[in-house]
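Bug: token stream looks shifted between consecutive jobs. Job 1:
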Amino acid sequence: MALNATSFPETLIGSTYDRDFGGLLRLWSGSPVQHAGLFEGVVGPAANADSYRAAAQRTSERLTAAAKIEPTSRVLDVGCGSGDTAVHMARHTGCAVVGVDLSARQIKHAAARCADLPVEFRQASATRLPFTDGEFTHVISMDALYHVPNKPRAHAEMRRVLRVGGTLALTDFLRPTDNIPPEVQAGLYDRLMFNGGHSVLGYQTALVAAGFEIRLARDISLDLRRSYLLLARIARERLGAVDNPGLRRDLRSYAAACLDIQAAIGRRQFGWGMFVADRVPDREAV
């Protein structure tokens, strides 16, 4: 695992999401989208916020299908944010979902939107999951584990709460190479509070070492590049409806950061992956 020049503690990550959640609500008109999207082809000139929502939902659908989540499944969503993925899975499969996140503000927002669904939310860390051994059939996580300072501990915890034969399914940001220029480290990785990171191969190696058997490993960085290109467009479009100087400044900064990220992806200095792995019995763990 390549280490950051800076380490970001979980308390900082949680408080930052609490602080910035208001801006996310404004960007998405009160219904935030918090993970990247899988697109059908290029992002054309007509693509907009609705296009991004559809792409993000497609990511949830693909991950749900790859994990084979069913009505009888009991799912833990690690780094659930404002609850999009948990709500989608419960609504479309009938499964029961528990979401955990470091941000109290996001957990509160998530809980308020799903009173009619078999979903609950708790504030908790991926490295200290408040659940019994083997409590879940599936653990999922979307674009969240890159924040975790102690990744081996998080992998061990996710394995612990899975039953034998249970499935881990996730998307996460990748660090494709150790040769990251200092300006990219500071302007991209540190900005995202990225604690360490793996390439596609490194991620698989880490999961196998934690006691998982890899079923799917896919580099989906092209879609992450499309996601950030469209996010920059959405932020610029929001500028036309905003009068507050501070908010306009924040939107311009966000759009510029999104373009910087999509450029870094094009240079293979940042990436995105999808992984599905099954929990093997203890005797098979490496």
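Job 2, same session, no restart:
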Amino acid sequence: MGRQLGYSPQVQRFCLPLAIAGMLLAGTAAPSRAGEEVCGSDSASATTDAACCPSDMLSTYWPGRSRQLSETLCQLLMFPTASLQTGDDFTQRIIDGSLSSDSRRASADTMTLPSLWWSRDSLTSHLGGRRLVQSWISYQIKDSATTVVDVMVNPQMWSVLTYNERYAVLNQFGTAARDFGYNLRFFQGNTRNYRLVGLYACNFEPQPSEASVALTPGLTCSANLNAGLIVQLQRNLVAESERRQQLATPTAQSVAADSRL
């Protein structure tokens, strides 16, 4: 189950109807009940509409999260990856120049997260040492200002860790990313297909352009490490996004009728 960590309130709402549950899907959201978010039927604009991610569904699985945090979690669950399978969609949906592959060498031109180097190198041999974390990238999502670090872990080593050991690793890297104003996703797999196995999300103030961010007392973060539940949520969010898209899309008959008016 996810754990909630207390740190600082936030005001941004971010969600994109994109999925990484096996294949990338884009959806729009339209309410069928009172209280559901409204999303336009124009798929081009819907892909950047924060209201399109059905984040209200997460309260059943991860209760106690604020609306803003649920929307951030929803976006992280549904955003594509930089794998061979969804790499083109990933590239199109991040801000140009924001991608930094700093896990092998620091960049002089883009923002890097030096604390992740320390986090990787400080892992004990019992946790896999430097071999556990294979690589990471950081980037900023278009139209939402959400900054994210995607960390790839060695699947063989990750599989032998206990839940508590995995949580310790996730929390260590999540805290390091948080100190720079970044959310974090943990993946395992290969270059063709990544599987999301962990999330560390926070309610940040509007994202800074500098390499670090001053934390506000009371910042709220959520660490989630239930891989089975994450996969289930991805599938449910995709299905609900498709359902809302269908409700928001005018039928051929109604379009024809409107054209005759």
